[in-house]
Amino acid sequence: MDQHRPNPAREALYEAMRPLHLTPLWEVLHALVPKSPTTACVPALWRYREVKPFLMQSGELITAEEAVRRVLILENPGLPGQSAITQSLYAGLQLILPGEVAPSHRHVQSALRFVVDGRGAYTTVEGERTTMHPGDFIITPSWRWHDHGNEGVDDVTEPVVWLDGLDIPTLRFFDAGFAENDDSKSQTVRHPEGSSYARFGANMAPVRHQRSGLTSPIFSYPYSRTREALYTLERNGEIDAWHGVKMKYINPTTGGWAMPTIGTCMQLLPKGFRGKPHRSTDGTVYCVTEGRGNVQINDQRYTFEPQDVFVAPSWSKVSFDTEQEAVLFSFSDRPIHEALGILREEFLD
Ligand code: GTQ
């Protein structure tokens, strides 16, 4: 019998059991256990040159201190009102003007910063400050105090914008979020800048180091080093037909992902690249570091330029093509998929 034809007797039964908070599985089973992922998340692209004027206008109407974090959320058009760019991840563009401070706080949610525009800002994590340069990938681990500021550098004072990526929707799903404000606006700097990088960024670690926590002890991965690695590999011809030259950021003490809930990568697409399509279960957010190109996400095609952000939903077919070299930062919830054994991917022709 056709389950979708009106069936008054069944409808009456469902109606009668509703006060007891009972519902029939057979009406929803196909949707609960789909043949392949059916996400509400849709492909989308945010052009930085269209977004920046709104960020700057926000800068005139509210201070970083009043806002706590002056951020425009990049909300997936398929997930309205959810402050989510994919089902599990949050993304936003944060502006900090010269002289401003975004006050110190901590939360269970892990955060990454990918610096998009301007120089002279810093992030302080647990008493160690790091200066932010375009293309740097910076981590604020779960439950670590962090504040941001913009004091300028080398006589340059300019607005600074970075992409925030957080696991906010994941923590919301687990109902496991806690947060606290610090007593002081700005943390006292207790460690010289570069301490963490000196300890863990030279393929070495202090001999008496004992692992603590799940997040990489390097909290700033400078673009200068990343870029050099990618361009060297490209010159050596190590080009993947799907990804170009794609490297993941790792925790040097484990070889695993730099963050427990968010996987981060940087990839170089060579000039004239005609990438093959790929799909995976981890919906992915991309930010254009350098260069221009095109991305095909299912039947959507976008041209991207520096500082643009775009999102490819879970199981969407993604392929890239370029006329010039391009470099893309990306992040997804892949570490969770791997930890749970639910990652699937396909490399298509
Ligand atoms: O910088 O701590 O975009 O707590 C959203 C929540 C940034 C931050 C966001 C946050 C932060």
TrEMBL record:
Oxidoreductase found in the keyword field: yes
GO molecular function term, any single one: gentisate 1,2-dioxygenase activity
Domain of life: Bacteria
Matches recorded under Gene3D superfamilies: Jelly Rolls
Protein's name in the database: Gentisate 1,2-dioxygenase
Cupin type-2 domain: residues covered: 93-155
NCBIfam families reported in the protein's UniProt record: gentisate_1_2
PANTHER family linked: 1,2-DIOXYGENASE PROTEIN-RELATED, CUPIN
